[in-house]
Write a structure and sequence with these properties.
The chain is α+β, with helices and mostly antiparallel strands. It contains five helices and five strands; from the N terminus they run ββαβββαααα. It has two domains: 73 residues, Roll (Ubiquitin-like (UB roll)), CATH 3.10.20; 67 residues, [2Fe-2S]-binding domain (DNA polymerase, domain 1), CATH 1.10.150.120. β1 and β2 form a beta hairpin.
């Protein structure tokens, strides 16, 4: 049975009429037309659907929309431009499918640690799969977003 659910997404209040068990990913993509979070595996193992939920990187493909409550949701569309600029400058995307999840994961890390080591970046992004082999450029992009390179 559909229920009215109020969400704060990218700083805007949104109300959706949806089954409470619907994964947050489907609400973001299908109801709110936010195409950044991607459907990858549907099992929270690839990271393509990553969003920030109250500042923490969260896999939206398995997270029921009813569990969001008043926690703010941030998708790649709501990130500061420095992430897009850093990933572009480092040419960190090839096919681009994983990049929204990588950028959101990096944003979550940088909220906790403004100057992470390479090892900390690798650990934070470990659950985000990339098949293109752009890992080294992604690491450089995260460092750039942290202000460690120019």
């Amino acid at each position: 049975m559909a229920t009215r659910i109020r969400l704060n997404v990218n700083g805007k209040e949104r109300v959706v009429l949806v089954d409470p068990d619907t994964p947050l990913l489907y609400v973001l993509r299908d109801r709110l037309q936010l195409r950044g979070p991607k459907f990858g595996c549907g099992l929270a193992q690839c990271g393509a659907c990553t969003v920030l939920l109250n500042g923490a990187a969260t896999r939206s493909c398995i997270y029921p929309v009813s569990a969001v409550g008043s926690q703010p949701v941030v998708t790649v569309e709501g990130l500061p431009k420095k992430f897009e600029q850093a990933f572009t400058a480092e040419q960190a995307a090839q096919c681009g499918y994983c990049i929204p999840g990588m950028m959101v994961g990096a944003a979550g890390l940088l909220q906790e640690n403004q100057h992470p080591s390479e090892a900390q970046i690798r650990i934070a992004l470990n659950g985000n799969l990339c098949r293109c082999g752009a890992h080294l450029r992604i690491l450089r992009a995260v460092k750039r977003a942290a202000g460690e390179t120019s």
